[in-house]
Amino acid sequence: MAALTNHDRVRVRVCGRGEFTARGTLKQISSVASLCIVPKGPAADPDAPRLPLEDKIAKNFENVPAKEWSKLPHDLIDNLDHYLYGTDRPA
Predict the structure, then answer these.
(1) What sign results for the dihedral spanned by CA atoms 48, 49, 50, 56?
(2) Do 85 and 22 form a contact (C-beta atoms < 8 A)?
(3) CA distance 38 to 49
(4) In whole angstroms, what is the distance from residue 88 CA to residue 9 CA?
(5) 3 pLDDT more than 60
């Protein structure tokens, strides 16, 4: 209830699974593992170290097995829009 009455100061963080559009917009939440209320705006602990974006991204992928990485197309970076949105590949 606090997130509804104090929506100008807090947010609800939902961890779970969802369905997304091809552009990455959340369509619906299919299962919820946890909910928590977090402060809105700057981090609750302003002295906490902040990771650079590339480190945050790398952390998300550090436990992906090599077998799964090998399933990605060899030209993924060159043709990312094609794989994500179905656009034509560059000539």
Answers:
(1) negative
(2) yes
(3) 17
(4) 44
(5) no
- Separation CA 64–CA 71 (nearest Å): 12
Per-residue model confidence as pLDDT tens digits over 28-84: 999 999 988 888 765 555 566 777 888 888 888 898 999 999 999 999 999 999 999
If you search the block for the tokens 């990771």, which residue do you land on?
51
Check whether 11 has a pLDDT greater than 60: yes
Can you tell me the distance from the alpha carbon of 62 to that of 21, in angstroms, rounded to the nearest whole number?
25
Task: Give the angle subtended at the CA of 23 by the CAs of 61 and 53, to the nearest 5°.
Answer: 35
Helix (H) or strand (E) holding 66: helix 66-69
How far apart, in whole angstroms, are the C-alpha atoms of residue 78 and residue 74? 9
Q: What DSSP letter does each residue of 10-53 carry, written as one string?
A: EEEEEEEEEEE-TTS-EEEEEEEEEEEEEESSS-SSTTS----H
Give me the pLDDT at residue 4, please.
62
